[in-house]
Amino acid sequence: MNIIEERTFEITSKLEKEKANLSLLTERLQKSSQITKGIDTILNTFEERLSRLQDTILPVYNDTENLQKSQQNIDRTLVLLDNVISYYNVSSEVESVIEKGPGEGGIELEEYLHSLNRLAKAQNYFIKQNPQSVELENVRTLFDKGSDKLNSEFKTILDKYNTPMLPVVLLDLINFDDTGTKDSKTPPVQIPEHSKAYLIKIATWLLDNNRDEYLTVYGKVRGAVLQRSLTMLRNHQKSVSGGSVHGVASSPMLRPKFQNRHEATRKPSTRRLHHALERKANRMFLKASQTFEHSTGLNLGTRRASSHLDPSYNGEEYDNEQEMENYLICVVALHKLMQIEQSLIKGIIAPTHQPRVFELIVREAMDTIVQDGENIVSRAKKCISRHDFGTVLVVFPILKQLRALKPEFERTVEECDLNVKAKFDAILGMLHSTGSKALEDFIESLRSDSVTQLPSDGTVHELTSNVIMFLEQLLDYTDTIGIVLAQDANYAKQLERLKASDHNKALLGLYIKKVLVQLNHTLLSKSEQYGDAALKAIFRLNNNNYVLKSLQRSSLLELYLISEPKCEEYYYNSIQEHKKAYSQSWGKLLNYIWCDDSPINLLHGDKLRDKDRAIIKEKFAGFNKEIEDIAKVQRGYSIPDVELRESIKRDNKELVIPKYNAFYNMYAGVQFTKNPEKYIKHKPDEVSAVIDRFFDVAA
After folding, report:
1. Best CA proximity match to 468, nearest among 406, 571, 557, 593
2. How far apart are CA 556 and CA 516, in angstroms?
3. With contact defined as beta carbons under 8 Å apart, do 480 and 399 qualify?
4. Structural contact between residues 461 and 535, judged by C-beta atoms closer than 8 angstroms
5. Which residue has the higher pLDDT, 6 or 245?
6. Of 46, 263, 546, 552, which is most buried by a Cβ count within 10 Å?
7. Beta carbons of 506 and 495 less than 8 angstroms apart
8. Could you give the CA distance from residue 179 to residue 167 in angstroms, rounded to a whole number?
9. Whole-angstrom distance, CA of residue 31 vs CA of residue 219
């Protein structure tokens, strides 16, 4: 019972509590609803007030914005009006500046350029806005005048520093480069840095304003400087040399050139001068020998003059040598001057215009060099036409050195106008073709040699010595001549068959073979003019021996062996054949002293018959006459080579003395005559002494 009551009381308590909570919640909901309605009323009121504010402020804002835009437009209009007014006033404002001009005694460059820029802007304005305006003409005239003065100032600055380089300085510069030292010698300053910066500012403004006259001005002024430098060098070379090669060699500024090139080292003029002096010495010896012959009647056995290779001395060899040296020096000097100008042009002239301007700078100097080259080639061709091949050799050292210079030259002009490189290539082409023609015409001259006069003593023909001398001089230019010959299809075809490691040596070897083969044919043909078979053999012996010895004492043999491995064997065989032909001249004499046909009764000791005595007398008389005639004739023969001369004498003794000794022993003691001294004139040792005096004009 109590439990039920407690439970009922508990439930009733909870019910009362929940009712109280429900009543509180209802009350709070009512308050929340009232607050919501109040906020809604406030928001509606704010919205109404905001709407009224927008309606009031927006027109004011718009009006303010329009006023600001109007103000900005007015400001811009005023600025534009000021600019326009300044365009109309610029002529009068800058006229005094333009009249004074830039530079010394004038206006500072920056101020002057500023004035020109103002004129440029005014000109552009009037062209676009009012092309019919009178003011446009005023501005344009003043602008052109100012631009012209700026161009003049550019030229004035260039002219101020247009002093050509002194010859001694230029020679020292190129000589220093040729020493091969790592340190480079700084060339003289052409234009000071501050003046160069001044020129750069002017050039930049002129180019930006389409006034490119300064490009031509720069090219002509610097070109004139380069040309004058080259001309002064040429005049210096002529004055120092005094018309003689020795003057160049003795110049303190001129050291050996091209010592570090691709081919063998060469001192200026040394080898060619040696040959030139040798030729002069030969001429002096010829003259002296002729004088000796006239005064004594004796023949020294000298060589006779030939129509080609060695003309009468008139100083032409030295002139050509001098011309070659001067030309090479000028070419190297031009290259050095081009390098200096190429360095100077950077910065002053825009890169896009540098090739054209550089071509203008070097045009006259290159034309001069080309003309000089053409003159050398022209004279070389004249020498070729008159068969003066010793003089035409000047072409090869020039071609050699220019080919050595070509890589450096091409690096210098690689970014320049192609005409510059084309001119250099034209020089090489002319020299190449002339050298090729000289080599071929030399062989043709041997084939068609018209000189019929032969040395009366059978000595070495001057044609032979000149040919050897010519070939020896070619050795200095093996690589150059190899390149020239390689262009000939015939030589190229023969070269393929040789399979040589050094093509240039092989090609020159082929040329040497061709020359010597033709020389041999020519000499054999000429020798047919001799009526004396012995003299003909001596002539052939001398020439073959001279060629062989000349080959052996020089590098010619090394090259000849490449093209003809058996060349030495050929000459040795030829010498033996000619010795055999010469020995036949003793045939008639030997017929008198043969013992095989001796009278039988003499062999058995019987008394001589008259017929037998007559035969013995005839043999001794015939022998005496023959040995005297042969001695008289062959004393006048000439064999310049001592070894060959002694060899021929030894062969003569071996051929004659044993037979004559047997003949003498057999008949000298026989009573075949009452006057033995009339017939027995020579003992065997005396015959040997007679033979020893052969080939000796003084014996």
Report:
1. 557
2. 11
3. yes
4. no
5. 6
6. 546
7. yes
8. 18
9. 103
List CB contacts of 462: < 8 A, sequence separation 6 or more: 303, 304, 305, 306, 310
**CA–CA gap between residue 690 and residue 692 (Å, rounded):** 5
**Helix, strand, coil percentages in the chain from 3-state DSSP, rounded to 5:** 75, 0, 20
pLDDT, tens digit, 9 for 90 and up, residues 609-620: 888 888 888 888
Give me the residues paired with residue 102 across strands.
107
Sign of CA dihedral 87, 93, 98, 104: negative
Residue that has been written with the tokens 């090669």 in this structure: 245
CB 299 within 8 Å of CB 372: no
Q: What are the C-alpha distances in Å from 8 to residues 2, 19, 20, 213? A: 10, 17, 19, 125
Are 203 and 348 spatial neighbours (Cβ–Cβ below 8 Å)? yes
Maximum Cα–Cα distance across the chain? 219
Q: Is the pLDDT of residue 382 over 80?
A: yes
Computed from CA positions of residues 303, 307, 310, 312, in that sequence, does the dihedral angle turn out positive or negative?
positive
* Length of the chain as a residue count: 699
Q: How far apart are CA 143 and CA 95, in angstroms?
A: 10
Residue type present at position 620:
F
d(CA 392, CA 471): 13
Neighbours of 145 (CB within 10 A): 15
Residue 459 DSSP one-character state:
-
Q: Beta partners for 346?
A: 349
How confident is the model over 449-466, as a mean pLDDT? 88
Q: How far is CA 295 from its chain centroid?
A: 52
Query: Phi and psi for 182 in degrees, rounded to 5?
Result: -75, -35
Q: How many CB atoms lie within 10 A of CB 433?
A: 15
Q: Which amino acid is at 52?
A: R
Q: How far apart are CA 574 and CA 552, in angstroms?
A: 16
Check the CA dihedral 120-126-131-134 and report its sign.
Answer: negative
Pure H helices in 346-461: 354-385, 389-392, 395-413, 418-447
- Contact at 8 Å (CB) between 254 and 175? yes
CB 587 within 8 A of CB 502: no
List Cβ<8 Å contacts ≥24 apart for 664-667.
Answer: 666/595, 666/598, 666/602, 667/616, 667/619, 667/620
Beta bridge partners of 107: 102
Helix, strand, or coil (residue 686) = helix
Token code pair at residue 441: 């015409």
Which whole number is the average pLDDT over 458-475?
92
Calpha distance 526→463 (Å, rounded): 11
Q: Which residues contact 609 (CB under 8 A, 6 or more apart)?
A: 599, 601
Tokens in use for 431? 């020299």
Q: Is 293 helix (H, G, I), strand (E, B) or coil?
A: helix
Q: Which residues pair with 349 in a beta bridge?
A: 346
Supply the angle between the helices 270-296 and 462-474 in degrees, to the nearest 10.
Answer: 170
Task: Indicate the pTM of the whole model.
Answer: 0.69
CA angle 647, 652, 655 (to 5 degrees): 125
Q: How far is CA 395 from the centre of its chain?
A: 11
CA 560/CA 468 separation, integer angstroms: 13
Strand segments, DSSP code E, in 162-254 are none
Phi-psi category of 458—alpha, beta or left, where left has phi over 0 and alpha has psi -120 to 50?
Answer: left
pLDDT band at 252 (very low <50, low <70, confident <90, very high): very low
Asked whether 542 and 515 are in contact (CB, 8 A), the reply is no
With a cut of 70, say whether residue 662 has pLDDT above it: yes
- Phi-psi sector, 308: left (phi>0), alpha (psi -120 to 50), beta: beta
In the block, which residue shows the tokens 């825009």? 350
